[in-house]
Amino acid sequence: MNPTNEQAQACLRVCQMLSNGYRNIELFRFNPQTGIVFIFASEELQIIIPTNGIWRFLDETEF
């Protein structure tokens, strides 16, 4: 499974926003089984991007 076009574009926008805010991207992971992208930035921000490209912050209560 590959990322969708919407997902790939959202990844680019999110990474650019993080970079503009001088945030380090610690981990960028695409899970081929679920099709979800996970981004961990600056030791505190966790972002998921599903196949529809609508990204959101991952709340620690979801673990």
TrEMBL record:
Domain DUF6888 intervals: 3-56
State one Pfam family annotation.
Answer: DUF6888
Q: Which domain of life is it from?
A: Bacteria
Provide the protein name.
Answer: DUF6888 domain-containing protein
Lineage of the source organism?
Answer: Bacteria, Bacillati, Cyanobacteriota, Cyanophyceae, Oscillatoriophycideae
